[in-house]
Amino acid sequence: MIKLNLFGRGLKLQIAIMVGCQMAFILFGYDQGVFGGIVTNEDWLNTFGHPGSGLEGIIVSIYNLGAFSGCILTFIWGEKLGRRLCMWLAMGWIITGAILQCTSYSVPQIMVARYITGIGTGIETSTVPMYQSELCDADKRGRLVSSEPLFVGVGIVISYFFDYGMRFVGGPVAWRVPIACQVIFAFVVIFLVFGLPESPRWLYYHGRNDEALQVMCDVWDEPPEGEKVLKMQTEILETIAMERKEGEYKWANILKRDDVQTGRRVLLAYGMQFMNQVGGINLVVYYVPTALQNNVGLSANLSLVIGGCVQTMFFFGSLIPTFLLDRMGRRRPMMWGSAGLAISMMLIAVLLSFSTARGYSPTLQKATSSASVTFFFTYMFIFGATANCIPWVYVPEILPLHARAKGTAIGISSNWLWKCVFNHIHWFGIFELTLADSFVIVMITPTLLNNLQWKGYLYVLPQHPSTLIGLKLTVHLLQSIFMCTNFAFVPLVYFCYPETKNLTLEEVDHLFTAGGKHGAKALTAPSQPVQESFRAQALGDDEKLGGRDGGLAAEHAEVMDEVKDSHSV
């Protein structure tokens, strides 16, 4: 693919890489949010025959199905095509889908158009974080990659208030123009990609060593014999040799243990993005206006305004990891964030349960419903600060080079495949209980909110609608989904996920090469890679203690205490 010298060398080129990746994720956020305000537009409803909640859910969720398909395409061809070409092709899919969407006059056309747009988004989200991870310093990787989900929030907010403003225009322009504006972001990304370099790690892996060396010299503005360039080249080539010690990797062996535990790391990547979606974020992003109007009891106009303000908390929360993730690490924010999300979701459900239908006074219902709005804000802020950003950073950095493209595609597919492990509701006189993926979760959310009201934030009970009655809060907590999954992630992260902050992508491999305990003993303490990451972080801090103040010494002591605790268990 043609590369133009648009951005020179060194810092300018690094900034261009960062901006290109962030612009791609602004588009991602805009795509995600633009339909939230459109589905209530009167002209949109008239054009598509006032679809019921079930059909509306299918129209919205087919975008996710397309994104999952895009991940599959990246899994198949991503490693062959390279990072830049994948980004360029993703924009082509999105532009095609946007054109078809804004010219739609029937339900089949809008569904096909959203599916095509989703394919582009799937390719984009499977490629961009990996590309940024492979073209930045280890001590900046967390901040740079986590800035991408931050700009998802920017895109969502832009789309939300654009939808709100166009609402006063009326007619088909009110919804066709916001959809068409997707192409603006896509063309900007296409322009930027022509001036960006290919990933040097991908080039080395495919034997294009001279090109890879030139890319590293350009990005870090050093000569070929420069210290940083030589160190990176040595690490990358040694890692490739280690990963190829038993020959080219075959995906039929994914569940077999190899020297760098590839299968385990792919599962960790999948699980991290699973956590990104299973806490109920889909409910807030896609349907917060509906939830505020029907469940909280606000007017349609005020619901849209407050919904837009809720989305801004996504942005403000994401500022924290964008500036501090390389100091905070990955593990602890994920654990504390999961606990905070669970508490927020619980309080939303509790406060919305005081309804007149359950015998409470209208005054109490209004007071508690209004109070619940607070926890929509806290939920979105906490999510932005933790579960929104960290999985996007963690997936590409936890994977070995030989499996990074395919493994990232698998990991990101989790984002699209699972919004939560949920009960699929079919209203045919009874509840039919089935497992569901993100396609189903988005599809059923309108029905869920319309029929279960506050209980939708906690659980779905497999009972006949006529027998769906309130239970005590303790029973609700036991059967909750959004809340319980968030709480369950705390021990999962503690025991299974190693810390990767400030480690190069090649150093992460060494966390998985040390032998550990087996059998029952392996289940009584954090996993061996987790313990190795404790040692790596403690060693890294120890090397820096001489040149920094006592605050780092305290951090060092805290890490060492965690190591001791893990061994004492």
UniProtKB/TrEMBL annotation:
Transmembrane intervals: 12-30, 58-78, 143-162, 174-196, 266-288, 300-324, 336-355, 375-395, 427-449, 469-497
Major facilitator superfamily (MFS) profile domain sequence ranges: 17-501
Superkingdom per UniProt: Eukaryota
Keywords: Membrane, Transmembrane, Transmembrane helix, Transport
MF (Gene Ontology): carbohydrate:proton symporter activity
SUPFAM superfamilies noted in UniProt: MFS general substrate transporter (SSF103473)
Membrane topology: Multi-pass membrane protein
Gene Ontology CC annotations of this record: membrane
Location(s), subcellular: Membrane
Pfam family, one: Sugar_tr
Similarity comment: Belongs to the major facilitator superfamily. Sugar transporter (TC 2.A.1.1) family.
Protein name: Major facilitator superfamily (MFS) profile domain-containing protein
Protein's organism: Friedmanniomyces endolithicus
Upper classification of the organism: Eukaryota, Fungi, Dikarya, Ascomycota, Pezizomycotina
